[in-house]
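To close the chapter, one final illustration. This time we ask the reader to focus less on the individual chains and more on the assembly as a whole: which components sit near each other, and how the overall shape emerges from the parts.
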Amino acid sequence: MSQQVENLIKKDYAAGFHSAIESDTLPPGLNEDTVRFISAKKGEPEWLLEWRLKAFRAWQEMEEPTWAHVHYPEIDFQSISYFSSPKSMADKPKSLSEVDPELIATYEKLGIPLHEQEMLAGVAVDAVFDSVSVVTTFRAKLEEAGVIFCPISEAVHRCPELIQKYLGSVVPQKDNYYAALNSAVFSDGSFVYIPKGVRCPMELSTYFRINEMNTGQFERTLIIADEGSHVSYLEGCTAPMRDENQLHAAVVELVAMDGATIKYSTVQNWYPGDAEGKGGIYNFVTKRGLCHANAKISWTQVETGSAITWKYPSCILKGDNSVGEFYSVALTNNFQQADTGTKMIHLGKNTRSTIIAKGISAGRSNSAYRGLVRMNPGAEGARNFTQCDSLLIGDRCGAHTFPYIESKNPSAVVEHEATTSKVSDDQMFLCQQRGLDAEKAISMIVNGFCREVFKELPMEFAVEAGKLLEVSLEGSVG
Amino acid sequence: MSDFQNVALQLAESQRSPDWLQSLRERGALSWSSAKWPTRKTELWKNTPLQPLAHDLPSRWAAPTAVEWQRDIEQIDIDATQLVFVNGQFMVELSSELPVEIVRFADADAAQREVIEQKLGTVVDAERHLFAALSNAWAADGILIQVPRNQALNKPVYLLNVSTPEAEPAVSNQRVLMVLGEGSQAELIEHYVSADSKQNGFVNSLTEVIVGENAQVQHYRINLEQEDLLHMGGVHVNLHRNARFHGFTLAQGSRLKRIDYQVNHRGEGAHLELHGVYLPRNRQLIDYHTNVEHCVPHCTTNEVFRGIIGDSAKAVFNGRIHIHPQAQKTLAELSNKNLLTSPTAEIYTKPELEIYADDVRCAHGATISQLNETSLFYLQSRGIERAEAISMLSFGFINELLTQVPEQAIQDYLRPRLTTLFGQGSELLGQLDYE
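The assembled structure is written out below.
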C-alpha cells in the first residue's frame, strides 16, 4: 500500500510541459509607461488608456488585502512582466492552418480539440495562449445568430460603445487591489454579447493557458446578455509546470439584463506547486455578475489547481425576482491554499439565491469557504439557502468556514448550514470489503460528495471535472 | 490612541489598588494603550461601532448611591449567597455573609492572594480582547470564588450588579475569578440590572473561570439593563480534563452591549454547553462573540443561540469554533437562529469553523427569518388574537432554551418579563406591519 502511494505521489503533474515559442515580452516592472505600452501595443483608443491609468493610479494608493486565510511570501509586483504575446501573432493568423504548429501541438497535448472540436463538441473555442487571443472559431455561426464572441481587444474596436458602457460597470476599477491591477494592465480576454431574445446556439468556451516564464496573466472577461437571452460559458485552464510563482489576477464581469440567463462554468486546474509546496500559480480573481429583473446568473466552479486561490464569484441581485446560484467544488492537496466562496447581495424583491459549496482538503492544504449573504432593506420576500460541506482527508490539512450573513429585511429568509467531517471509516470499509482499493474508494466517495455540483456542469465538463478530482487526489490516501 | 483610551488610562491612574495587582495593571495598561482603536475595518468590531463610548466620555468612577434603587430592581428569588454591587462597589450591608470559598480581593489572605496573583488574567487573552486589557488595567477589587477539591458550594453564588443613574457619565469595573479544584462543583449567577431611569454609565465586566479536572460549573449571565447603559463583558473559561461548563446567557437592553465568551478546552473529555438568547429592542445593539478553542482530543461543544430583533435594534452574533491539529475526535455544533420582527431591525451573524484536524465532526447552522405566517394563521383560526399569537410564537422560539435552564428560580424570574416584553412588542407590531 505505502509503496503504491509513494509511486502515486511521485507522479508528475500530467499537464506539466513547457512549449518553446518565442514571444514578444515586456521586461519586468510596472509603471505608467507599462500601462501606456500595453495600451499602445493593442492600439487602444484614448479613453481606454485613461481608464487604465485611472485604475493604475488607484492601485498605487491601495493596500494589498491580508484578510484571506492564505499565507504566501510577499509578491514583488515589479519583478513581473506585464505583457507577452506569442511571436507568430504579429501577422495575425486568419484561420487554423495559419497558426504556429507548435501552438497547435501544445493544445493537442492538453487535449483541446482545436481542429476537430467544431463537430465533436459543438463548442466554439476562443483559445487564449498567454495574453493574446490567437484563434477564434465558429465566429461565423455565432454571427449568424447575432452573437458577438471575440477577444476583448478586438471588441474595443468592433463595438466600442458596448465596452465603454459596460467595462467596469460591475467590477469598478477601484473595487479591490487585484481588480485595480487588472484594470490597469489587463492583457486580453473574452467578450460576449448576446442580443435580445437570442439563445446562444452553442456553449461558448475559452481555454486559458499560462505559458511564458514569469508572466502574470491578467484576463478580462465581459459577458453581456441582453433582454431575454441565454448563454452558457465555459472556462477551463491548465498550466505547464514551472518553479516560479506566477501571479494571475483576472476579472470577470457579467451583465444579465431583464429576463436573461448566464451560466458560467469554470474548471480550474492550474499548476498547484509540487509536493513540497514549491511553485504554483497565485490566483486572485474577481468575478461578479449583475442581475436585472427576472434574470439569472449561475456560477459553477471546480477548483483543483493553483497554489493559492482567492476567488469569490458573486451576484448582485438588483432586479426583482432575479436568481443567483453558486455551485463550487474546491479541492486542495499538498500545500495548496484556497480561500473561496461567494457573495449574494439581495437588493430586489423576491430575489433568490442558492449556494452549494463543497471543500475537500488533503495533504497539508487549507481550504476555506468565505461567503457573504446580504439582504438589503428592499429585498422583500428574498430567499437564500446556503450549504457548505467540507471533507478532510489526512490529519494535517485544514477546512474553514467563514460565512457572513446579514439581513435588514424581516420578510427575507436566510438559511445557512455547514458541516465538516472526514471520510468515514465505515464508508471506506464497505468499499474496500467490496474489493475496491483505498484510492478508488476515496475517489468514489469524493465524487459522490461533489455530485450536487457536478450535475450543474455542462456534460463534457462534468466528465473532465470528475477525472480531475481523481488525478488531484492521487497520493492523498495513506 | 483614541480619546476613550486616554480617558480610561487617566481613570486607571486615579484608582486606589493593592500593590500586588500592579504588574497585571501595568500589563493591561500597556496592551490597552498600544491597541489600535477598532474601526469598521476591524474584523472583531466590524458591525459594532464604538461611537457611543467616545460620544459621552466618562469623567469619573461611578459611586454607590442611596439604597433607593431597591424599589425598582426586582431580584431573582433564589436561596443563594448573595453579593450586591451598586455601580461596581460592593455593598456589605446588602450582601449575605460570605462563606470561606468567596472573598473580595481586598480581603484576601496570603494564600488567596497568591491564587489571585497566579491566576488572574491568565485565562483571558488580553491581546485579542480589547476590553479585557482594559479590565486588567482597571483591576482593583473583585471577587474570588475558590472551591477546593471534591467539594461543592452548598448554595449558588448570586452576583447582583446594579447600575444607577449618575449626574455625569461614569464607569464601573467588575471582575470575577472562579477557580474550581478537581472534582468540585459550583453555580454562579451573574445578574446585571439597572434602575428604571436614564443611565449614562459604562460597565466593563470580566469573569474568568478555571474548571479543574472533573469539576462542574453551572454559569448564568443575565444582562437586563436599561437602554442607555453601555456594557462590555467577557466570560473566559479554561476547561481541564473531563470538566464541564454549562452556560446560559440572556441579554436585553443597552444601546451598546458586547459580550465575549471564550472557552478553551485544555483537557481531554471536557464538555461545553452554551445557550444564549438576545432580545434587542428599540435602538439597542447587542453583540455576542463566542470563541471555542479545541486544543486537545475528545472534547465536545454544543452551542445554541437564539435572537429576536425588533424595532430598530441591531444584533451581531459571531460564533467561532477552532479545532487545533491535535484535537482529534472532537464533536462540535453551533446553531444560531434569528427572528426579525420589524422592517428596520438588523442582524449580522457569522458562525465560523476553523478546523485543522481530520477526525472530527463539526457543524454549524444559521437562519434568519420572520414569524411564520402559516403558524400565525393557524393560531388565529383557533380564535387567538394576532398580537397574542405573535407573542406566543416569539416565546416559543426561545422557550426551548428557557426550559433547559436547570435553575427553576431563573426560569420563574425570566418568564413573566419575557411575556411582557413580547406582549408589548407585538401590540406595536400589530399596528405596524402585521396588519
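Residues 426-435 of chain B have pLDDT under 50 and may be disordered. The CA atoms of residues 378 and 384 of chain B lie 9 Å apart. With these observations in hand, you are ready for the problems at the end of the chapter.
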